[in-house]
Amino acid sequence: ARKIIIDTDPGQDDAVAILLALASPELDVLGLTAVAGNVPLALTEKNARKICELAGRPETRVFAGAVRPLTRPLVTAEHVHGRTGLDGPELPEPTMKLETQHAVDFIVETLMAEPEGTVTLCPLGPLTNIALAMIREPAIVPRIREIVLMGGGYFEQGNVTPSAEFNIYVDPQAADVVYRSGAPIVMMPLDVTHKALTTKARIERFRTMGTRVGTATAQLLDFFERFDEEKYGTDGGPLHDPCVIAYLLKPELFSGRQCNVQIETVSELTMGATVVDWWNITDGPRNALVMRDIDAEGFFALLTERIARL
Ligand code: BDR
Ligand code: CA
């Protein structure tokens, strides 16, 4: 199975991504590392444990990481995810323990211990923990198999400001470190995730599974879609983070191209913008495989088939 570390700030869509990974035998989840993002760290690490228990996988290792971005004050998104970050279902307080090791140390130690080129990082939130690990031990960078992340946007530029997507906006300095690192990056931007809309009919498929996880997933998505439906008038909400895990399972669901990506870290107006050289106008290094399209029906078919297994 492919070894992955999921770096996450749950978040309803993070939660569904974690469920998808834990339901998939092709993936070996070495650990979940929590970061401050949608809500503060004390909630994201707890939410990560709630989801492991919901999946029936309390042995999964969960680590807490950075409490705030590298240089900027933390910006959160309770207006999207609710006060707990995981509003929707009534999930019990977790009983599984949080690991005592710091998430950044776990990422470094794992990449140094596992054979080179075997561990994939899956960041679903601000890139603070990943950047800190690279700064702490630069020798991890050539050992990373791939970084498959949710973040950014180009034709669909922003969701938190007109020009920036939330994960990159919250910690643009960290994103800059990661995009300059030279590690192979696969990027799932808003251009893809805004095509992965839940819709009422798709949520019904989870509700009618008749399982605890299916019901909880429907409740998570019911809550999550409200924000986009009210704000943008779409049928359903964008299932951002699960696109990362779906790519590992079925890359053929996605298409894009290799290009140069740079992060805006100076202008307050466009802070956190991902400047994607889609047309290869410059000769900058093609540091990311930037996705643009998704087979949304195939994606939801995969997701429902896997969630039904839990
Ligand atoms: C990203 O921001 C968070 O609110 C979601 O969990 C997702 O990772 C989308 O911009
Ligand atoms: Ca997230």
From TrEMBL:
UniProt entry tagged with the keyword Membrane: no
A Pfam family: IU_nuc_hydro
Keywords: Glycosidase, Hydrolase
Record-level Gene Ontology MF annotations: hydrolase activity
Inosine/uridine-preferring nucleoside hydrolase domain: residues covered: 4-300
CDD domains xrefs: nuc_hydro_IU_UC_XIUA
Keyword Hydrolase included in the entry's annotation: yes
PANTHER family from the UniProt entry: INOSINE-URIDINE PREFERRING NUCLEOSIDE HYDROLASE, URIDINE NUCLEOSIDASE
Protein name in the entry: Nucleoside hydrolase
